[in-house]
Amino acid sequence: MSIQWWNGVMNVVTNVDYLAIPIAFIVLRNLREPDVPARVLVSRVLFVVFCGAHHGVMAVVLFSGHQIWLIRTIVNVAMAGVSCWSLLEHIRWARVKAPPVSVQEHTMLEGRVRERTRDLIGTLQELKRAQDEVVRTERLAVLGQLSSSLGHELRNPLGVMSNAVYYLEAISTSPDPRVQKYHDIIRDQIDLSQKIVENLLDFARVKQPSPTVFPLRTVVDEQLARLDLTGIAVRVEEDAGTVAVWADQFQVSQAVFNVLTNACHALEGQSQPRLHVKIGVRDDQATISVRDTGAGMDNETLSRMFEPLYTTKARGIGLGLAITRAFLEVNSGSIHARSTGEEGTEFVITLPMAEAATPAVV
Which residues have C-beta within 8 Å of that of residue 268, sequence separation ≥ 6? Predict the structure, then answer.
């Protein structure tokens, strides 16, 4: 082999000489470090030995002038191999030396992870609710404008039709009972259409409440009197004496009427229809519970029944419960429902108590 080849090999291998002295110094300082494994200690000792051999060979070359290429190559390659081996042993030792995590620390870490995961899930749920609320608000705004326009456009034709039926009844001289029957059918359908128009207008513009103090029992009795309760066993209870609220009596009455109407519709076709209305107080809030023994509602209906235009009835446009919730919310109240196939459906209305909500008189 040529001298140039040996010089190339030596230039590559002897580069470790630049780091040999400081590394050897660090190794010598840590030879007596406690709890050092035997393999690590041996790698340190061999590294120091080959560092010394390397510098001894270099001293011989310097003072004698002999290059002794083979010996220099063997010593340098061995020193490089020992360096790599020592490094690997130190890495293994560092992994083993790392203090183990105690059971308590592991439990604390798991608890923190669960807590952060729970916080993240809660944040995502709040974000989803906020997004749904934004979508709902936008839909309600568009639907309100449409309802207002339709309500005004339909009110006048219905008024004309109602007057026309009244005029036909006044001038009719036909003894045929079918004429009066069809007059009644037309009038009933006009009344139904007018009710739909009123619902559209109520939904389009929920007025600001004019709150007063009034007892809930009076509202419940008045709205029950408006309904056809033939064949329905009705029971009304009131806890804690007279429960009075601070709200708009007209809006609350309409909300209670809508809930009672839904309950009566749910009882149609039942062999033993029962309606239970309970007035009480819960968490400093007045409550009205309306429970029926109907067929109940499925999960989809429970989750969507307060959405505008959602209905499971053959007739109607699905605004009754949406208006009910709007009337209650504008009076600082709320409504929720629960239902099972065996126990029917229960609506619970909450409203601010008169004692807590009435403004102080100066």
Answer: none
Give the position of tokens 């219905």: 158
- Cα–Cα distance between 350 and 84 in angstroms, integer? 77
**Total domain count, the chain:** 3
Q: What is the C-alpha separation between 140 and 134, in angstroms, rounded?
A: 10
- What gap in Å lies between CA 319 and CA 309, rounded to an integer? 6
Q: What is the DSSP letter of 362?
A: -
Q: What is the mean pLDDT of the chain?
A: 76
Structure tokens given for 85: 């081996």
- If phi > 0 it is left, if psi is from -120 to 50 it is alpha, else beta; for residue 269 that is left
Range of the domain at 13: 3-97
Query: Phi, psi (5° rounding) for residue 218?
Result: -65, -45
Both 219 and 352 in one domain: the answer is yes
Residue 40 tokens read as: 């690590």
Evaluate if residue 280 carries a pLDDT over 70: yes
Mean pLDDT, residues 95-115 taken together: 75
Which pLDDT tens digit goes with each residue over 179-190?
888 888 888 888
Q: Tell me: do 292 and 323 sit in the same domain.
A: yes
CB neighbour list of residue 292: distance below 8 Å, 6 or more residues apart: 263, 264, 266, 267, 273, 274, 275, 276, 344, 345, 346
Residue 227, token pair as written in the block: 């309904």
**Measured between alpha carbons, how far is 296 from 290 in angstroms, rounded to an integer?**
13
Q: Quick one: pLDDT at residue 106? A: 73
Amino acid at 278: K
Residues 253 and 350 in one domain: yes
CATH code, domain carrying 327: 3.30.565.10
Would you place residue 333 in the very low, low, confident or very high pLDDT band (cuts 50, 70, 90)? Answer: very high
Cα–Cα dist 287/268, whole Å: 26
pTM of the model: 0.52
User: Are residue 175 and residue 235 in the same domain, yes or no?
Assistant: no
Whether residues 192 and 225 share a domain: the answer is no
Q: How far apart are CA 273 and CA 266, in angstroms?
A: 9
Give bridge partners of residue 127 from the DSSP assignment: none
Q: Is 27 left (phi over 0), alpha (psi -120 to 50) or beta?
A: alpha
Tens of pLDDT, residue by residue over 198-211, are 766 666 666 788 89
